[in-house]
Amino acid sequence: MSLLSVENLRTNYGRVEALRGIDLTVEEGEILTIIGANGAGKSTTLRTISGLVFPVSGCIFFLQRRIDGLRAYTIVSLGISHVPEGRRIFPRMTVLENLKMGAFLRRDGKEREENLSKVCLHFPVLKMRLSQLGGTLSGGEQQMLAIGRALMSNPRLLLLDEPSLGLAPLVVIEIARIIQEINQRGVTLILVEQKANLALRLADRGYVLETGKIVLHGKASDLVTNEHVKKAYLGE
After folding, report:
1. Are 196 and 229 contacting, i.e. CB atoms less than 8 angstroms apart?
2. Is residue 130 within 8 Å of 147, Cβ to Cβ?
3. What is the DSSP letter of 233?
4. For each of the chain's 236 residues, which pLDDT tens digit applies?
5. Contact of 179 with 163, CB cutoff 8 Å
C-alpha cells in the first residue's frame, strides 16, 4: 500500500485550472520528484496535498486515510510537513523560535526536545545560531532553517518546494546532501525542483508535469535518458 496516493486531482485558482486530473503515488521511504516548467502546477500539487489549497475534485489518501479537504494543521498532525518555495521563515524571530513554531502541534515537551536535537544533528550551523534572528541568516542557512522547522513535527512525509532556489552552487550541493541524509533516516520526500538534473539524481522515481497534467512518470534513471526530458528539461 502506497504511503500517499493522489487520484484524478483537480485544483483551480479562480477560473484557471491549475491541476487537470493528476494521479500519482508515493512509496514509503523513497524520494519522489516532480519536474516541469514554471507554471506547470508543481507547487500547486504540493499546496493541495498539504491543505493550503482545496481541490475542486479528486482524492488524496495518506496512510489509507482520505485527507483532501482537511485543514493544513490537521494534515501536519497526521505526518505531512511542507517546506514552501521561498522558505517563508519568520525573519524577526530567532532560529530557536522558528524551530519551535514547527512543533506547535506537539504537546509532549520531551518529544519536542528530541526533535530539536535531531534537527541540530542535521544542521550543526543552526545549533550555533539558535539565538540569532532568522532574517540575518544567509540564504542557505535560511533554507536549512525552513527544512529544520518542518522536521520539528517529526513527519513521515516531507514536501520540499524548490529547495535550491537562489542558492550558490556549493550550498546547493550541501542541501542535496542533507536531503539524502533526511531520507536515509526514514523520512519519505516529494521534491519539486527546477533543476531537473539535480532532482533526478536525488530521486528514486519521478513525474513530469506539463500544464497541469502528468505526461511521463517512471524511475528517475529512466527519465534521465528519455528524449523528451533531455530536450525539455536537461538542456540536451
Report:
1. yes
2. no
3. T
4. 799 999 999 999 988 999 999 999 999 999 999 999 989 999 999 999 999 999 999 999 999 999 999 999 999 999 999 999 888 898 999 999 999 998 877 666 677 788 888 888 889 999 999 999 999 999 999 999 999 999 999 999 999 999 998 889 999 999 999 999 999 999 999 999 989 999 999 999 999 999 999 999 999 999 999 999 999 998 75
5. yes
Residues contacting 62, CB < 8 A, separation 6+ = 3, 4, 75, 78, 79, 80, 157
Q: pTM score, two decimals?
A: 0.92
Domain 1-79+189-236 has CATH 2.40.10.10: no
How many Cβ atoms from other residues are within 10 Å of residue 114's Cβ?
Answer: 13
> Measured in whole angstroms, how far is the alpha carbon of residue 133 from the centre of its chain?
24
Set of cell numbers at residue 18: 491549475
CA 136/CA 123 separation, integer angstroms: 17
Q: Where are the domains of the chain?
A: 1-79+189-236
How far is the CA of 84 from the CAs of 2, 16, 131, 201, in angstroms? 24, 21, 23, 21
Residues 208, 217: Cα–Cα separation, whole Å:
6
